[in-house]
């Protein structure tokens, strides 16, 4: 388990003191994939450096597997850090070494004998899907393959915690998805805890169980990914959720508001099993309303699907209100849209 208790980190700068992490408390369970999301400067990298002991907090405690990383020194810190490994945005590979030699590097440093090392490297190459590329140099690999080497190297010494620092930010969308799938399969096969930092909600939606949203050093919201998508609280979280779900939505809504001025434009939020219910048919049958579908999408998350549907409801005020109430009674949240934002 990873636990942060009232952790703050201040840096001294030419203009005085800067608070990069501001009184953060978090608990990350074993075997969890936990995402930390925030825009540039939110404090995510500082958080990662606090988690691997590269930085000491100004106040508060960072516990990883029951070891207080913020207080440990010397051998105790080295032992604790042995269980924590990192994957980097720009891979950080050794360019003069082959794939196999890059992966072997942390094993050499740990003093693993040659035979055992070669056996372990073979296993890792198979685990990350790089069979046959053992002798290739990083310059001969695609971005996705380089990150597979980075992941294999990070797993070499059997860590219990894998920290991923924007591990897919340098990759195209398809390669990003393949690397995210690899992280999920590693989490499931090896049972390790993954903490990833990102500025992309897509990454959180696709693989994380829980998420913490950071802004100006503070965690402004945290929770189960599906719940956060369904019911974001902080304005910044709403922006991230919109970013991950709204492709084409703004244009459709703007057009609809312009073209059809009758009735009401309603955004409906579905979650889990509700995404499979025929509620739209039901409200047309039960109430004297017409339903015009403007925009819809369903986004899979690690804990179930989440969907939004924008519809234009026309009919008498009473029927429209009754139809909305009927949906609310079914547990489907709704929001009246009056402008594009
Ligand atoms: N060593 C340092 N000395 C002084 N200020 C720092 C240091 N490291 C980070 N900061 C400042 O702390 C704040 C948080 O930075 P941090 O790198 O943790 O954010 P981030 O969310 O990772 O952003 P980015 O994705 O741009 O790296 C920023 O204002 C940054 O300038």
TrEMBL record:
Give a Pfam family name.
Answer: NIL
Coiled-coil regions, chain positions? none
Signal peptide region: none
| Entry keywords, A to Z | Amino-acid transport, ATP-binding, Cell membrane, Membrane, Nucleotide-binding, Translocase, Transport
* PROSITE patterns registered for this protein in UniProt: ABC_TRANSPORTER_1, ABC_TRANSPORTER_2
Residue ranges of domain ABC transporter in the record: 2-241
Give a yes or no for keyword Cell membrane in this entry.
Answer: yes
> Is the Cell membrane keyword given for this protein?
yes
MF term (GO), any: ATP binding
Q: Which Gene3D superfamilies match?
A: 3.30.70.260, P-loop containing nucleotide triphosphate hydrolases (3.40.50.300)
Protein name as catalogued? Methionine ABC transporter ATP-binding protein
Organism whose genome encodes this protein = Kurthia populi
Lineage start = Bacteria, Bacillati, Bacillota, Bacilli, Bacillales
């Amino acid at each position: 388990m990873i636990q942060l208790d009232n952790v703050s980190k201040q840096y001294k700068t030419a203009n005085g003191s800067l608070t990069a992490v501001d009184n953060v408390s978090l608990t990350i369970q074993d075997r969890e994939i936990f995402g930390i999301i925030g825009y540039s400067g939110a404090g995510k990298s500082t958080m990662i450096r606090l988690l691997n002991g590269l930085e000491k907090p100004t106040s508060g405690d960072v516990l990883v597997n029951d070891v207080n990383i913020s207080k440990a020194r010397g051998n105790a810190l080295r032992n604790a850090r042995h269980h924590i490994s990192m994957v980097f945005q720009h891979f950080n590979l050794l360019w003069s070494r082959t794939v196999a030699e890059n992966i072997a590097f942390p094993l050499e440093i740990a003093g693993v004998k040659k035979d055992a090392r070669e056996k372990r490297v073979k296993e890792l190459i198979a685990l990350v899907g790089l069979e046959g590329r053992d002798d290739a140099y990083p310059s001969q690999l695609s971005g996705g393959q380089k990150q597979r080497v980075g992941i294999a190297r990070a797993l070499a010494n059997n860590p219990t915690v894998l920290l991923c620092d924007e591990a897919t930010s340098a990759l195209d969308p398809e390669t990003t998805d393949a690397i995210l799938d690899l992280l999920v399969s590693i989490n499931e096969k090896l049972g390790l805890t993954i903490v990833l930092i990102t500025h992309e909600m897509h990454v959180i939606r696709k693989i994380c169980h829980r998420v913490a949203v950071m802004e100006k050093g503070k965690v402004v919201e945290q929770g189960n990914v599906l719940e956060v998508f369904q019911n974001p609280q902080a304005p910044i979280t709403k922006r991230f959720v919109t970013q991950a779900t709204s492709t084409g939505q703004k244009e459709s809504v703007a057009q609809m508001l312009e073209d059809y001025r009758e009735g009401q434009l309603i955004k409906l939020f579905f979650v889990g099993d509700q995404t499979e219910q025929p509620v739209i048919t039901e409200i047309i049958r039960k109430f004297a309303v017409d339903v015009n579908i403007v925009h819809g999408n369903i986004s899979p998350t690690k804990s179930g699907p989440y969907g939004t549907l924008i519809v234009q409801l026309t009919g008498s005020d009473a029927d429209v209100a009754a139809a909305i109430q009927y949906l609310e009674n079914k547990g489907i949240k709704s929001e009246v849209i009056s402008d594009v934002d």
